[in-house]
Amino acid sequence: MARTSSNMLQLGTGAPFFSLLNPLTNKHVTLTEAAGERGTVIMFLCNHCPFVKHVNDEIVRIANDYRVLGFGFIAISSNDVENYPEDSPWLMRDNARKYNYSFPYLYDESQQVAKDYDAACTPDFYLFDAELKLIYRGQLDDSRPGNGIPVNGRDLREALDNVFNNRKQNELQKPSLGCGIKWKPEN
User: Fold this and answer.
1) N or C terminus of the chain: which is more exposed, having fewer CB within 10 Å?
2) pTM surpassing 0.90?
């Protein structure tokens, strides 16, 4: 398992706009359509990564717990599907159904959105406030496949709770760790 860390985009950065295909509905979804009233979590995921598989159930629980509180959730897969066909849009659709994603799981075919967000790994998490300014980026929690630490979403849950309760964000934000995004070969 290759281990790649988040790039830790600068806090305060505005969320880059996007319009991406949702393979489940075969329609495009924009950032503004899926954004939440209180804040928006953008997650870079993929189907095949063992780090994502390890946390998928908790991601769904967090989205279900916080969507009702006014937060939007958006998952994006940016992997090169020619070399990693298990991350194809049609298998993304199957994965969204399998895990009962309550949020759009969007396909970044050009990989431009991943570049705009300086995403490096899967999973990679970004929390933007109501004005779509970055206030948290990094890991879901300290759990990794095989390290024996239970998956509980502690870091992301704390960041969401801080927004909900108008508290200052923790300055210690740990990078996520996972599989590197599978970039297309340069032409």
Assistant:
1) C
2) yes
